[in-house]
Amino acid sequence: MKNLMKELNIFDKFEFKLLSFELVPNAPKYGKINMVESFAKRFCVSIDDARKSINHINELGKAEGIDFKFDTCPGGNTFNA
Questions:
Q1: What digits encode the pLDDT tens for the residues 27-41?
Q2: 10 Å Cβ neighbour count for 80?
Q3: What's the rounded Cα separation, in Å, for the pair 45 and 37?
Q4: Phi, psi for 19 (deg, rounded to 5)
Q5: Which residues lie closer than 8 Å to 42 by C-beta, 6 or more apart?
Q6: From CA 71, how far away is CA 53, in angstroms rounded?
Q7: Percent helix, strand and coil across the chain, each rounded to 5?
Q8: pTM recorded for the entire structure
């Protein structure tokens, strides 16, 4: 979003406020979650398809200069994160 706003020369007209968003309300507050298994269960796909989707997300991030490590992040409740 910030890159687009710079490109459109409107960056100084907005203020960003980052807030947490609860992605999975029943996620445990602490502990490790296998993100590939969680993704597969949540979206009703195979483990292999979940791994492919997560790798795709990681690659999209890299293309924008963001080093996502979605497949190895510990997971948990996003409010606590």
A1: 787 767 788 998 899
A2: 11
A3: 10
A4: -125, 150
A5: 24
A6: 10
A7: 45, 0, 55
A8: 0.63
